C-alpha cells in the first residue's frame, strides 16, 4: 500500500514536471518583420534591437522573419514557424480565424487609410469603372484586396469583373510600370514611386475601407507565454513613444529602410496614423470588416470578433 502511494506521488510529480516543461519559456521568439506600408514602429524596434535587449537577460533569441503578406503570416502561425507578427492587417486576421486558424490582436499599430491604393498604368487617369475586364495585380487576402472588392462594389461590379492576378506589391508595381497589367494594388513607398514614374492613383482606401494594422499573435504563443507577450507589447508601445519623442530621427530611419526621401517618408508617416490601444471604434470596424468579408465570399465562417482582441490590446 505504501509502495503504491509512493508510485502515485512520483507519477504526479513527473506529470507536473512535464507540464512545466511544456510551458517553459522558449529559447527563441519568431516574429514577422513587416516594414511596409511604412511600419515605423517595426523598423525602429528592429534597427534599435529593442526586443533583443528586452529578452537578452532571459537568454531568448529574437528571430525576425520577413513575411509581408498577412495571409502568409497566418499560415506560418498555423504551421508553428511564427509566434508573433509585428504588423498584420485585420482582413487577414479575420479570414484566418474564419478558416479555423486562431490568431489574436495583441495591440494596435496603425490606421493607414491613405497608405493603400489602386494605381493605374502611366498615361490617362483611370476611374474605377475603367477596371472592368482589365488585369489587376496585387496580394490576395489583404487589406488591398479588400479595397479592390469595395471599390468595384461601389460601381456595381465584383472581383469577377476583373482579371485578378495574385502578386506581391513589389512585383505588382513592376508589372504595372512594365505595362503587363492595367492596375496594381500598392502601398506606401510603392505608390509614391509609381506616381513619380507617371502612374496615377485611381483610389485610396479612404471612403471604401478603414484599414487597421495590428500586432498579432498565434493562439499557442498567447496561451503558453502571456508574460512574454506582455513584454513584447510593452516594447512596442515604448517604441511608439520613442518615435513621438525623436520624430525626425525615426523618419530618417524609415526613409533609409524604405528607400524614399525624407519628405516622402514624413508624408507616409503622416498618412499612417500610428496608435497603440484598440478603441471601441476599432472594435466596431472589426465587426463591419467581417460583415464585408462574409458578404463578398472572402471569409468562410463568422467568428466572435470581441474574442479576437486580447485584454492587453485594450489597456
UniProtKB/TrEMBL annotation:
<feature type="domain" description="SsuA/THI5-like">
    <location>
        <begin position="55"/>
        <end position="248"/>
    </location>
</feature>
<protein>
    <submittedName>
        <fullName>NrtA/SsuA/CpmA family ABC transporter substrate-binding protein</fullName>
    </submittedName>
</protein>
<dbReference type="Pfam" id="PF09084">
    <property type="entry name" value="NMT1"/>
</dbReference>
<dbReference type="InterPro" id="IPR015168">
    <property type="entry name" value="SsuA/THI5"/>
</dbReference>
<feature type="signal peptide">
    <location>
        <begin position="1"/>
        <end position="24"/>
    </location>
</feature>
<keyword id="KW-0732">Signal</keyword>
Amino acid at each position: 500500500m505504501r509502495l503504491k502511494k509512493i508510485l502515485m506521488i512520483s507519477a504526479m510529480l513527473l506529470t507536473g514536471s512535464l507540464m512545466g516543461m511544456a510551458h517553459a519559456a522558449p529559447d527563441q521568439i519568431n516574429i514577422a518583420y513587416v516594414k511596409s506600408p511604412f511600419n515605423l514602429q517595426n523598423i525602429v524596434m528592429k534597427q534599435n534591437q529593442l526586443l533583443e535587449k528586452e529578452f537578452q537577460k532571459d537568454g531568448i533569441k529574437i528571430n525576425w522573419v520577413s513575411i509581408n503578406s498577412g495571409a502568409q503570416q497566418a499560415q506560418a502561425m498555423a504551421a508553428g514557424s511564427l509566434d508573433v507578427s509585428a504588423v498584420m492587417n485585420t482582413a487577414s486576421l479575420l479570414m484566418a480565424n474564419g478558416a479555423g486558424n486562431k490568431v489574436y490582436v495583441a495591440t494596435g499599430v496603425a490606421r493607414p487609410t491613405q497608405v493603400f491604393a489602386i494605381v493605374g498604368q502611366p498615361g490617362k487617369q483611370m476611374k474605377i469603372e475603367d477596371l472592368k475586364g482589365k488585369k489587376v495585380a496585387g496580394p490576395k487576402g489583404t487589406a488591398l484586396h479588400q479595397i479592390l472588392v469595395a471599390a468595384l462594389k461601389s460601381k456595381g461590379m465584383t472581383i469577377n469583373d476583373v482579371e485578378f492576378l495574385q502578386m506581391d506589391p513589389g512585383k505588382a508595381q513592376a508589372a504595372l510600370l512594365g505595362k503587363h497589367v492595367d492596375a496594381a494594388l500598392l502601398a506606401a513607398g510603392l505608390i509614391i514611386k509609381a506616381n513619380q514614374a507617371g502612374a496615377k492613383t485611381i483610389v485610396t482606401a479612404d471612403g471604401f475601407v478603414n484599414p487597421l494594422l495590428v500586432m498579432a499573435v498565434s493562439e499557442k504563443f498567447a496561451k503558453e507565454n502571456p508574460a512574454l507577450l506582455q513584454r513584447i507589447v510593452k516594447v512596442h508601445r515604448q517604441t511608439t513613444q520613442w518615435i513621438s519623442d525623436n520624430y525626425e530621427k525615426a523618419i530618417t530611419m524609415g526613409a533609409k529602410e524604405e528607400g524614399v526621401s525624407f519628405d516622402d517618408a514624413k508624408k507616409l508617416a503622416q498618412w499612417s496614423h500610428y496608435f497603440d490601444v484598440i478603441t471601441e471604434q476599432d472594435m466596431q470596424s472589426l465587426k463591419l470588416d467581417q460583415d464585408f468579408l462574409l458578404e463578398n465570399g472572402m471569409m468562410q465562417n463568422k467568428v466572435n470578433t470581441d474574442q479576437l482582441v486580447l485584454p492587453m490590446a485594450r489597456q
